[in-house]
Amino acid sequence: MSNNKLYRGSLTTIIMRLLEQEGKMYGYEITQRVKELTNGTMDVKEGALYPSLHKLQSEGHLKVEAEKVENRIRKYYSLTPQGEKEVVNMMQELKEYMENMQAIINPKLSF
Question: What SS3 state is found at 43?
Fold first, then answer.
């Protein structure tokens, strides 16, 4: 299994966590921040990013604000109060998942 398959299953968590940390971001900014944080090893494609953003918005986790920047409309995404609660749940689930994977992969190590 390639890393991209693993990352794809985590894209929603990645988006939510970045927005929790950064406040508001636009799509391209999210892709670039992921590249920066992973030293270029993870490349989020727009074809995966925008459907995830739209899904999170339709679920009530994100709100969108449009701003005019250099004669272009840029959409900024940020967490709603519901999204802020959801990201806490997601981080707890991720922590438990990572602990379980660590127990399976290397039972002698623990977090």
Answer: coil
- Residue 84 CA to residue 19 CA, distance in Å, equals 9
pTM value is 0.82
Please list, in sequence order, all residues whose beta carbon lies within 8 angstroms of the beta carbon of residue 82, skipping any fewer than 6 positions away.
Answer: 60, 61
CA separation (Å) from 91 to 10, 21, 25, 64, 110? 11, 12, 19, 23, 18
pLDDT tens, residue by residue, 36-56: 999 988 888 888 999 999 999
* Residue 13, C-beta contacts closer than 8 angstroms, at least 6 positions apart: 90, 91, 94
